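re: ur question from yesterday

yeah so i grabbed the chain u mentioned. its 368 aa long if i counted rite. heres the sequnce exactly as i have it in my notes:
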Amino acid sequence: MRSSTTLPTLRIIEPQLVGCSGHYAEFIRALASRCDDVFGCIEVVASARAREFIPSLGGTVPVVAHPLPRGPLSEMRAINDSLHQGRHTFVLTANASHALMADGLGWQKRADLRRFSTFVHWPLVKPSARLALALARRTRAESLFVAPTRGVLDALKVAECDHALVVNYPATRLANAPMRSPFAYLLMAGAARLNKGLDTIAELAELLSGEGRTMQLLVQVSPKHVTHHSPREAACVARLLAANYPGLVADANAPDRAQYAARYAGALVLAPYERAKFADGVSGVVLDALLHGAPVVATAGTWAGDVVERFDAGIALKERTAAHLLRSIDRVLQRWDQYAANAAIASDTLAREHDPRNLARALAARGV
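ran it thru and got these structure tokens back, copy pasting raw so excuse formatting
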């Protein structure tokens, strides 16, 4: 085993990291928990407000804050500075423009570009993305493009990214997470959004209220959505709150890590996501749910629906309507013990498959 002083440093570029909870933070925390003997340290380039909590993301290796350059083109300058300093450089939530930033209009050395990696969460298929990738010729030829699913990989291959591969989204579960818990409530985990089925959940609350049901329905949403999101989303929030469903808990606060994991105990997770949006992208919420033993109802034809069907750990929803969602909920509740047992089996398998060490090794293998 090499000493941590002889291991390379990984520098992660993520200006959107602003809180110590949520999927940006959990991605870094997961990687730091399993990259000993691969990297000696992780540096995170993020906004000034992230500097205080970034060290708390450390695990088997330390995580330290590195300043984001001030002024225009800050992200591009951060990438170029990192490569010039000899760092393995990794963009956590990448789009096509990051490939162009790294290419630097031909200024970057090819050897430096071999130490540049991106994690591409969604297929880059828009005309603007295709143009940016076409212009980033040297990045496509030298750098690593990591895809979490086959659909994302296929889009990268079409764009002629020479070094593209699938690595499962890195994730961990809390130690001693309770499995096979009795049913407690329905849960729409994570911040509620239209493309995640907020409109369907609002209609579900109306159906539950109309049928005189009382089971708890926890949704991370609040009236402040009205001022932060689109009129359509605001209307869905208003509809949800106006359903007057006695079991509704509209939680305005984002939970911390321990609270977030604890919510999955006894939960039936509802993920009626838009099929077109989520066909090829990993749902961190559904992955976390299964890692913590919670059955799920998810849209068929999405990554989430596929993984639920694979383990028979819930229902793959064929039609995204509140009526079909309610029928699926009732089906799961009728066989709750079996679905909860299957979710526990899924937890063990997914913990192995999504081991963050796999990503750490893929990143470290470049540029050596």
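noticed a couple things. The mean pLDDT is 93. also The first strand starts at residue 9 and ends at 13.
anyway ttyl
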